[in-house]
């Protein structure tokens, strides 16, 4: 797990908002961790024709902020762009495929973090084994997921 500070950072980030007949408040604090690992999303009035919908989520970073921040910035986009979300009377069905899509991105980030340790000659071979849509050309990496 992540490293700890000698004493907690107790400065809090507070925010609030209202809309669609809702009022919300949120607060976050780094605490004992070296960096803030958690993130949140609070959207009142989802764009693209869903203005009467709202989206709230909290993401626990678990020893790092990268995935929590990615989810905070992109999970709603993955959900609203999902065909299951747009094409059904039960949009909640899109949640699981959208989370799976984010897990794919998490795997991708993890792989690139791990592959920093490998010699550059091995990286294209290893990536092509993990991602069949992988191609490598002039130090540019292309992956089709």
Automatic annotation (TrEMBL):
The keyword Hydrolase applies. InterPro entries: PP2C, PP2C_BS, PPM-type-like_dom_sf, PPM-type_phosphatase-like_dom. Residues 23-145 form the PPM-type phosphatase domain. Keywords: Hydrolase, Metal-binding, Protein phosphatase. GO terms for molecular function: metal ion binding; protein serine/threonine phosphatase activity. It comes from the Eukaryota. Pfam families: PP2C. The keyword Hydrolase applies. Gene3D superfamilies: PPM-type phosphatase domain. This is PPM-type phosphatase domain-containing protein. The lineage of its organism: Eukaryota, Metazoa, Chordata, Craniata, Vertebrata.
């Amino acid at each position: 797990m992540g490293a700890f500070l000698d004493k907690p950072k107790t400065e809090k980030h507070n925010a609030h908002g209202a809309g669609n007949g809702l009022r919300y408040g949120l607060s976050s604090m780094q605490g004992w961790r070296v960096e803030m690992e958690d993130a949140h999303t609070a959207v009142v009035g989802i764009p693209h024709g869903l203005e009467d919908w709202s989206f709230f989520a909290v993401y626990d970073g678990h020893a790092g902020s990268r995935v929590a921040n990615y989810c905070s910035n992109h999970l709603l986009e993955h959900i609203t762009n999902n065909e299951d979300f747009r094409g059904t009377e039960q949009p909640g069905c899109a949640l699981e495929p959208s989370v799976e899509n984010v897990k794919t991105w998490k795997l991708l980030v993890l792989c690139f973090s791990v592959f920093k340790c490998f010699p550059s000659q091995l990286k294209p071979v290893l990536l092509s084994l993990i991602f069949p849509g992988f191609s490598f050309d002039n130090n540019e990496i292309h992956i089709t997921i």
